[in-house]
Amino acid sequence: MINLRQFKFWVFTLEGLNALASAYFFNYVFFFLQKHHGFGPYDNLRFGALNGFLFVFSSLYGGKYAQRHGYFSALRLGFILMILALAFGYFVSTVLGLCIILSVWTFGMCFTWPALEGMACEKENHASLPKMLAIYNIVWAGGGAIAYFSGGWAQLHLGSKSIFWVPVILHGIQLVIVSSLRRRLPRGVASLAALPNDDAEHIQEASPKVTQGFQTLAWVANPFAYIAQSAIVPLIPELAQRLHLSAAAAGVFCSIWLFARLFSFVILGLWTGWHYRFGWLISCYLLLGAAFCGILLFTNLWWLAFLQIIFGLCVGLVYYSSLYYSMNASQTLSEHGGMHEAALGVGLFAGPAIGASALWLVPGQPHGAVYAVAVTLLCGGVALVKLKPKITRTN
Fold this sequence. Notes:
Layout: H1 4-37, H2 41-69, H3 71-89, H4 95-121, H5 129-158, H6 162-184, H7 208-242, H8 247-253, H9 256-270, H10 278-297, H11 301-328, H12 333-361, H13 368-387
Helix pairs in contact: 1-4, 1-5, 1-6, 1-7, 2-3, 2-4, 2-7, 2-12, 3-4, 3-6, 4-12, 5-8, 5-9, 5-11, 7-10, 7-11, 7-12, 7-13, 9-11, 10-11, 10-13, 11-12, 12-13
């Protein structure tokens, strides 16, 4: 039998391994497609859109599955599906085969993140929940940044097909951890004692109406932020080619924004002044849109590094807002985790889909994807401003 804090240690260990494995495969599969199948920006964007489309519906199902059947069952199923997909992916040599592999992998992954989000928040009280969310965000962002930073080196020394077998090893370790936790908690999280919830010490940050309003705001902002992120990732191989960067150098240089996002999670976890403040949310949203355009249009490395920092910091606040407002207003943790993941899945689909559509409609405009996504982000900013009068902070 283990206590709550020991349980959370293993939850964050699972989360870190998940971030490393999924980020290494997904971020570098675009380099793999460029190298082995001649994919350019248009094809990479279409491949990314497939992931996002499946992510939306799979996350909703994965969150509901974890809520009904338990976290451990959801994690076990998700890890097994990802292992099978990537193991077969190692031997697949066709684009159609890789699309099928991506579909199964995405479906499996969507059983894991809602469950891990729910487990991170399970049995916490009002005072400890923000701390758990801070740790959760720092762990997955750190894993993603490390995977991108070191992924180019891994490609160079372990081969391009390491995007398949390295994650398989990491997911195998996760299965062992889940099996061990299951034995030590035969009744699942019900075996754990919840932290006492002292409402006398809890200061309500906002009224229920304001809380729900900000949850809606964040659910609008986060998909649009992910439109920008998901449009950048498939285009990085082309950006690296334009800047004459190898995959290893691109991994180091293009991970700057991921480390900036990690840094923002650390700051936002320590400082709560941004809670229920519309000004912080809209300012960061507009800045990330401007930084997105600069990253894909500029060629000066110093400017690109600076814009990546701005982009990462702003994306961090928008994402943190979505997760915090979702979980702070929720009693069904993994189901709301699934809704949060599905909301960002909309962005994961829309970003590449809009970019690919622009390149298809105007093939002679190489920056068409950037302009199309920028207009979409502007529309998102207008939507946020229109929602603002309904949810003014009351304290």
